[in-house]
Amino acid sequence: MKHLILYALLFCLGTCWGQDTPVVLYRQFNGPFDFTCFGNTLNTGENNLQIPDICAIETQSSASFSLNAGSTVEKAYLYWAGSGTGDLNVKLNGVDLQPDRVLSLVMGSSGLPFFSAFKEVTNLVQTIGPGVYTLSDFDLTALIPDYCGNATNFGGWAVVVIYRDNSLPINQVNIYDGLQGVPSTLQIQLDYLNVVDAVGAKIGFVAWEGDASLAVSETLTINNNPLSSLPLNPVNNAFNGTNSYTGANNMYNMDLDFYDIQNNIQPGDTTASIALTSGQDFVMVNVILTKLNTLLAEITSSIATVQPKCGRQFDVTYQLKNTLGIAAVPANIPVAFYAGNQLLTVVLNNTIIPPGGSFTGSVTVTIPANITVPFELKIVADDTGTGTGVVSESNEDNNSFELSVNEMWDNPSNINPTGLVACLQPNGSVQFDLNLLISQLILQTGDQVRFYGSLSDAQNGNQVINTSTPYVVSNFPANVYILIVSNKGCTSIVSAPLLANNCMPQLALQNITTACDSQIAKVTVTITNPYTNLTLVAGIPVSVYLNGVYVETINSVPILNPLQSFTLGFSVTVPIGSPNPNLVEVIAGQNAFGTLPNTTPVSISFDINLRKTPATNPLADLKVCNLGLGKGVFDWSLYENQVKVQPADQVQFYASQSDADAIQNPISNIQNYQANHTPLPIIARVDNGSGCPAFQGFQLTTYNCPPEIFNYLSINGDGANERFYIKGLKDVFLNHELKIYNRWGVLLFTGNNQTPEWTGVPNEGQLIAQVPVPDGTYFYVLQLNDPDFPQPYTGYLYVTHR
Prior knowledge:
CATH class of the largest domain: Mainly Beta
Number of domains: 6
Shape: elongated
Strand order of the largest sheet: 1-13-18-15-16
CATH architecture of the largest domain: Sandwich
Radius of gyration: 62 Å
Low-confidence stretches: 1-17
C-alpha cells in the first residue's frame, strides 16, 4: 500500500535566507530502481564579475540522454530554474510545457527572487527515449540585468530520471526537492531509510549558482564524512559547475553531480545526515537523490471465503502472502475491507509474515444499509482505511483483491406494527384476533410469524400463543411480541400494543327539518361503526339534550357490523319563546342516569333554528283614473316600508301568487307601474331569511274620471287642433253620445265611442261628407250615459281655418 513519508527535517544555521522552499521528500521508489540526470545551463560562462559579458544568457540549450539496454524509464521530472520569478512557458523538444509546481527563494541580503519550475515529463521521455533533448523558449533576458551586479544571474534545466532495471538489487530511491539556499552550514536529515547493504549506495544533487572559481569552504558531508569525486568535485569545491553523469566541467552555474556513499553508511541505518557549507559562493540546492540497497516485503491479499450471516453481516476468511518479498512483513499491519469504495472495517494482523510465508485470518464485516447486492467486497493489505500504509514494499500496487458478492441476508423488518384495538367484554376482558396483525407487518416471501406474551418468551421461544382462538387479555396496558423468522433463519422481534376500547360508534348529523312557525324540529343522525374488524353491540343508549336540558334516551340502535351505519331519527320540541339558536347535544353511551360503566361517551352538537314567518301590515287597494279600457298608471312605492314590521325584512312585489312563490319576475317599477288591464291583483312577498315568507295582496283598479273638453279647432293642416279632442272620453265612456250644432240649432255631427273624433266635417244634415264647416262658433251636447255622470256636458267650441 502506498504510504506517506515524513518530510526531511531542515535546519538553517548561520546566515539565513529571506524566503525559501524547504527541501523535502517528494517521491520514494522501492524495487530494482536507480536514478540518472541530464540537462544543461543557459549561461555562456561563469557569472563571476571577472568574466566579460557577464549578463549574456541563451534562451535554449540541449543535452543528451542515454540509458543502458534492459533499463526502462519509470518516471521523469523536469526542473528549470533561474533568476527572477521565472519563465513558466517553455518547450522540451518542441512540446509546450507549463509547470505543475513552482519553487521559490528570495535572497535575504538583496531581496532578489529566484525560481525553479517543476513538470512531470514521464510520458514525453518514455515516448522519445534516449537521444538529444532541447529546452527552448526559456527566456530570462529581460530579468537577469538586475542580477548581474552581484553575480547571481543564471538559468538552466535538468531532467531527473528514475529507471527500472530488473538486474539491479532491490533499492530504495528517494527524491527530495525544494529550493534551499546554502548558508555557511545547511543540514538536511534524511529519515525513513532502510539500509541493508551499503554497496552501490549513492547520493545526487541538482544545484544552481555554484562557481568553480569560488572554492571557499564549499563542502558536502554525509554522516560527518566529507564527500569528493575527483577530478570533478574536490572536497573543498562541491558546487563548481560540473556534471558527474557526463564528466563535463562547463555547466556554468549549475551542478548535476552524484557521489558514492557506500563507505559512509552502514547496514541497518534508518537515517542519514547531510551537511552543506559554503564560505563565499551563493548556492541553491534544488534536488537531492539517494539510492540505497534495501530489503522489502511484498504483501498480496486475497479473500478465501465469504459466508453471509443475518443482519447484513459476512464472515470473511482472508489470506495475506509475502511470496515475492525478501523481507518479513511485520506484525500488526492494517488490513482494510471495503464494500465498493465504502470502508467497512480495519483489522491488524497479529503475525509476522516471513518471506515466502502467508497468514490466514478471519473477520466479520457489517454492510451499511445503503449498499445493495451485487457489490464488490474488497480487501486491501497495508491500508489504514485512508488509502495509506505503514510498510515499504517493492510493489505498492498489488495489495488489493476484490470479490463480487451477490447474496446478502437481511434481518426481517423491525418496524413495530400499529397494534390492535378490541372491545371490552362485560367482565372487563378483551379478546383479540392476533392474525389481524400479520397485515401490519412488512414480510418477505417465506417469512414465518410467531406470537408471544412477553419479550423473554419471544427471545427464548417459550409459550407460543395459539392464534386459532382469540387471545384474551385482562390487564392493560398490554403488548404482544412477534417473532419474525426469515427463510434464512434470520430473526427480528417487534411488539404491538393491544388496546381495550369501549367500542363507541361515530356520530354525524345527517339532517334537520323544521316547518314554518312550528316548535318541532325533526332530526336524523347517522350512527356508524368505525372499526374494520369489530362489531358493536345492540342497544347503545343515545341521549338527547336541548340547551343543556335532558330530553330523552333512545335505545333503538341495532347491532352494527364493521363499518356499518344506522340512521336514527327523533324530534325535538323547542319551548315557545326560546330564541334562536337552540343547542342540541346527542350523546352515545349515556342515559338518563349518566355515563355507562367502562364507557367513554361520544357526542355531537348542533344548533336548531326555528323558522318564523315575518309579521306584516295589510295594504289598501289602489285606484286611479281609467286611461282607457281599464288601463292605469300606479305608484305604490310607499308600500315597501308599510307592509313590513321589521325594518330588516326584504320586500318584493309580483303580479301573481305563483311568481311570488317561485320568486320570479319581480316588479321593479313600483313608482310608475302601467297596468294594461284592471282590476289587477299585486302580491307583496316579505322575507326574513328563515325560508318562511309572508304575503300581502292588494288590487289595482281604475274608475272613470270626468272628461276634459278642449273647445277649439284649427282646421289648417298644420297638425295641431285639427280635431275636437275630449280627454278621458274615448275607451273610457264606452256608451257616450256627442252631438254638435251650429248657431241656428242645426245638427251637424253625431259621434260615439266607435266614430272618429270630429274634424269639422258634418256627418248629419245637408252638408254630410262635404267640406268642413266655416269659421264660427258651434255648440256641443255630450251625453256620457254613465250612472256616475247623469247630466250631459254642454258648451261651445270655436272653429277656424287659420
